[in-house]
Amino acid sequence: LEKIEAEARAYSESFARFKQETNVNYNEVYRQGMLNFMGQSKDPLILTGSAYDEKKMMAQNRERNDQTGKFFIHFNKLILCYFFHDYAQALEHARESRTLLEAVLAKFEIPNHHFYEALTLLALYPKAGRGEKFRMMARVQNNMLKLKKWAKYAPENYEHKYLLIKAERLRVLGRFSPARMVYDQAIQKAST
């Protein structure tokens, strides 16, 4: 992560030299996420630190009607909240970023949004009410279908993600034996 963060910093410096403010902002939100994972922020769930200030940038994105910039904040916070086990907040960021998906058409974030949204829903599923469980599983199924389709055309990027969601779904439904087999498949595909 340190190496990738250093590369991201170099890109931001290059963008800044050419006065490409928007590219700097888009790159720095991701770099701040990296710094958060590296423990270099006061709160790992807040994209504020040496690279970025989420409150300032969210206000700027609203002022400029920068839907892409808003998406990048919510998408990064979705990932951070999921990894740091704040699933309720992760779900809020999944919902917010879902409304902004058109701002990032044809970008890698779309399948990854569906992946992390499904993981978040599955993490929340066991404690959800009956009606909510139905809605959550419908969204998970929808996201799985999309990941399965993308896996058909780019298995090296998406097949392991599809399989991980499939395994998690089996696990939360109490089907532990088949879940173990699918987890193993996901690990194998991610390793190749």
Which descriptors would you attach to this protein?
192 residues, mainly alpha, 9 helices, 77% helix
Provide a descriptive summary of the structure in words.
- The chain is an all-alpha fold.
- Helix content is about 75%, strand content about 0%.
- It has helices at about 1-15, 20-35, 55-65, 65-85, 85-100, 110-125, 130-155, 155-170, 175-190.
- α6 (about 110-125) packs antiparallel against α7.
- The chain is globular.
- About 35% of the residues are buried.
- The model has no long low-confidence stretch (mean pLDDT about 100).
Structural class by helix and strand composition? mainly alpha
Please give the number of β-strands: 0
Task: Determine the strand fraction and express it as a percent band.
Answer: under 5%
Low-confidence stretches: none
Gap between N and C termini, in Å? 20 Å
Largest sheet: none
Count helical runs.
9
The string of secondary-structure elements, in order, is HHHHHHHHH
Rg computed from alpha carbons, rounded to a whole number of angstroms: 18 Å
Helix content estimate:
over 70%
Outline, from the CA principal axes?
Answer: globular
Average residue-wise pLDDT: 98
Brief summary:
The chain is built from nine helices and no strands. By secondary structure, the protein is mostly helical.
SSE arrangement:
Blueprint: H1 2-17, H2 21-37, H3 54-64, H4 67-83, H5 87-98, H6 109-124, H7 130-153, H8 155-172, H9 176-191
